[in-house]
Structures are given as structure tokens and as C-alpha cells.
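Entry 14. Ran structure prediction on the chain below.
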Amino acid sequence: MGKMKPTRINMNAPDATCPAHAQADHPRIPKEKIGVLLANLGTPDATDYWSMRRYLNEFLSDSRVIDYPKWKWQPILQGIVLTFRPSKSGAAYRSIWNEEANESPLMTITKDQTRAISKQLKSKYGDNVMVDFCMRYGNPSTKSKVANMVAQGCTKILFFPLYPQYAGATIATANDQFFRALMEENWQPASRTVPPYFDEPAYIDALAASVESAYADAARKPDILICSYHGLPERYLKEGGDPYHCQCHKTTRLLKERLGWDDTQIMTTFQSKFGPEDWLQPYTVEEVARQAKAGNKSIAVCAPAFSADCIETLEEINEEIKESFEEAGGENFLYIPCLNDDPAHIDALVHVIEKNLAGWV
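Output, C-alpha cells:
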């Protein structure tokens, strides 16, 4: 039988006490708590070549992200991709890097979201609920945060991947890592995972409010709103039955209905194509150019698949995709930021959390 790594209970925690009716020499243990562990994609620790290489190696080695056989993919990854891509990706990250905090915007925003959610839950449940965050790739790792929650006395953990729509390459791989972390614990907490929340009315309301606010402040009203979602290979949908494509389209439809718009005012596209095979279409970078050539000289783009602004929104949308639109004759490009730590978004996330804590609190 394999040897399990011991659970690391923090007997020096401020709230550690001896259990009721225990013998006098019983070790002190922390007060039982419920952990809420938020999870996002991840971020490199820095923008230099080796930091980027470590991050990209972990990300692109995930078989949920790139599902080619390892014997075929790893030589390409290690020999070609990781030789050239770290420098290019590092330059992209430097263009958006939070220099003051020396971290990526995704890290900054995720910290802000965690603090805001923690404040709300603490006001309702006191110290009985502990809120923290982890990253699927890079730091802080899922494993380290699960271990810390167990050490602090969390006997139940709600794991919340911050992706509105389900995809194997996002929610599933985040859950995989959470379950791997639980395998390291001798004293495993009870656990739950949060399902996709793309159709939660509070989330759609927050999304719609952000669009309405951006349109109200715009010098020129956009001719069309492009809802740009991170792409996936078409094969994942056709062969694997991944529901992501359907859930993205439903998100756009729900947003359209909430705004009271018609089909001419909004559409769904997909970005971030990687590799030679066909991905979900239409491609955002091509569609914005087509819109410009068709006479829609003023457009807005939002990214409903992202809970926080990151490299794919701040650099890819607001730089590369914007450039494609302008080169095709577009005149006014409006990027509508992700919901980030907007109070309406935080309220929506807290609502989802409380619904999934039912029976625990």
C-alpha cells in the first residue's frame, strides 16, 4: 500500500484548541472551517525567458489543453515551441504588466476579487468560512492552497473555477488539479466543485450592466457588439462533446435578451487560435476586419468567457484584434473590460458560492 503524505494540521493556529471531552494531552487543533477556494488559469511569475518557459511548459504540457499523444507533442513543445514562444509571450506580458505590484493583471485582479468575496462572506459567516485563491498553472499552486486550508482546519472545501462556461481545457483541468491535491492529504476534507454559471441571472445582469455603462460613455455608439470567447479546436466539440460552444452561444443569447437587442446588434466569435487545425469559428481577428469592410466602422468587443482581464483580453483583444479592425478600415474600437472586481460581479459570484454551500452553512 502506498504511503500517504501526512496531513499538516497547524496546531499553532490562533483558534487552535483541544477538542471537547478530549484528554488533557490531546494536541490542539484549529477550529473547523469551510474553505472556498477560487481558481483561475494562471500567470508567469515574471516576464523573462525562463519564467515564461516554466509557465508555458506547465500549461502546454496539460493533456486537457493539448491532447496530442505525448510522444508526438513533447518533442515539438520542448524543441520548437519552448525555444521561441517564451520570448514572444514575455514581450506580450510586458506590454500589460502591473509594474507597481510586479505581477500580471490577472494576479492583481484575482487578489482583488478574493478580498471582496472574503469580505462579504466574513460579514455573514464570520471566521467559519475561509476564502483563498489558487492558479491551475504557476503560483500560487492548487496543491499549496489545499494543503494550507487543511492545515488551517478546513474540513470542507468548495472549489470554484472562475470560468462562466464549461470546457475540458478550463473547468475540468482545474478540477483535475484540485482532486490531485486532495490525493496528497491523509485527512481529506469533504469537497464540492462549482458548476458553470453562465446562465445565472445575476451574472447576466452584471454583464449587461457593464455593456450598458460602456455604451453610455462611448463617444460614438458601436454598430455591433462582438462577444469574443476563448477558442477551442473544433474537434473537441465534434468528437468529445464538449459543451463549451453551446454555452458560449447561450451566454450571448441571454445577454442579447437582457439588453433587449436583436440579432443585428450582437454576435459570437472565438479568439486565441493555436496550431494548424480548425478551431471554433468565426475567428474574432477575422470577423472584426470583415465588419469594418462591411461598413460597421464602430464596434465594441467584450469577453464573457473571462472572469478577469488577462493577456488574452488586454493584449490580444485590445492590441492585436483592434489592429486588425483598424487596418481593415475600422474607425472606433471599444473594448469593454471583464467584470473583474465590479461590485455587481462580486455579488453574482457570492450568490453562486452561497448556492453551492447549501447544507454546509
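The longest strand covers residues 33-43. Will compare against last week's run tomorrow.
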